Fold His-tRNA synthetase.
Amino acid sequence: GQYDLMVPDAECLKVVIEILDTLDIGQYVLKVNHRRLLDGMFESCGVPADKFRTTCSTVDKLDKSPWEEVRTEMINEKGINPEAADRIGEYVRLNGGTELVNKLLEDEKLSKSKAAVEGLEGIKLLLEYCELFGIKNKILFDLSLA
């Protein structure tokens, strides 16, 4: 069907939280990010468009590997120049909520990327719906999530 932007995403998060709360698994947080933001971030950092997906797969390793290992793989295996990798590193270590989204919307590099702005506006809207659904305290906007 046809739905407003981010409504189904927020509803899915609400259902997952209801299930996890029922299972009583203890403390947890659901991480969210936006593919358009990742594309815009890579573009802003100087990654060639044909290397977005391979860079994304490397960033995705941050939950298992330290930044230095991920950076080395980007440079040595994926062919990303060191300056671009360092700029990516500045972003992918960030996480937070609406305050972070607002800060990134004002970021000099990201604000020039249409894809990044679209992704950030999408995340901002998602977080607003999560607040309305009463689940925002269990949602974390995380730029390392690829």
Q: What stands out?
A: Helices lie at 7-23, 35-45, 52-59, 67-76, 82-92, 98-105, 114-132. Residues 114-132 form the longest helix (19 residues). The chain is about 60% helix and 5% strand.
